[in-house]
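DM from R.C. (forwarded with permission)

"hey, sorry to bug you on a friday — could you get me a structure for this? deadline for the figure draft is monday and I only need the backbone to look sensible"
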Amino acid sequence: MSGFDAYAYAQHLLSSLGDPGRLPPASGVRLYEGSRTATGSPAGSPVSSPADGSPASGPPADASETLLAGVWSALARPGALATNFRLVESGRQVDRSRWMRSRVGDGEVLHTTLVPAYLHSAIERGATLVISHIEALDERVMLLCEAIEYQLHARAWVNCYITAGDASAFDVHSDDHDALILQLLGRKHWQVDTRVGARSRDLAPGSLDRVLEPGMCLSVPRDTAHCVSGTGELTVHLTIGYEPFADLREEALAAHELLGTSAPEPDLEWLATRLAMRPDRRAGASLRSALTGEVGDSTRIRWASRFPPKIRTTDDGIVIITMGRRIRLDRRLAATIGLLSRGSALAWHDLVAQSDLPAADLRDLVRFGARNDFLICEG
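My reply, with the result:
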């Protein structure tokens, strides 16, 4: 894979969309324009800059191209995940038998291919191809999804939308989750009601009305009415849906309601600890390192839990709470554990360069982490 640093890119997007101390969705409807300037923007349009007020430093120049390559890869190999694909035309879902061929073979394996002739003509007519959970189909998108989850303490997923028409496949609507919109190819027209929580079928005067171009990112909080349409050219965008603190906040409020007590907003530290207790694991296998103990130059290492762990220092070591388990380690490993638990994927040579441990001790830690499934070691 390329040197695309999904963690750094996600960090850049989130800081560019947020106010000081207020990351999405708390910062409301906001638009990050990438390398574009705010010149010519409508008055009052929420063009954003980094949280510290300094000029936005540009994201990796190839970020959109890297993610777009992931979209084309997923489109070329739908494989067994045929149900991840939907074709919507004039507000209705097109029967899959028209544009997709599937057969069962080699035991119980489902072989799926797309029918290019029908698919191409449908998209030209204005149909929209939707690839749900595209993070399950491409590693580049998966790493970005993981990075968003880690930094927002959220459960996240990614859908992709491809169209070449100028109409909208969906009417004005709102979603029951927060979303980040990332434009990858072409231009797409977005109208978003800036009244967060407004489910009206009519957008309010002064709503955001912009055409997104590649590299631009839009934050749309849950229950916010919006309408999307093409511009008559081939366009691709990703919608990163996410639920901050998964459903823990709703669970806490529901518990208070059942007890008939007042429901204060749950403490963020408590929510983060509860997330660390969840067993949710990232996709990935460490079979080679776990069974043979091998860690090579091409090995990439990342934390295995879907949500950030909680790390506590004690008199005799450190205690890691992750995926519902407590792991005790020597205090000498604290700095390296902190590095690994950031959530990004690190190549072995980068880990060696950044860690304060001797290479032999570091190798033992990585092997131990793979064996005990709190580190994912691939390659």
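R.C.: lifesaver. The radius of gyration is 22 Å.
me: no worries. The chain has two domains: 6-244, 287-378.
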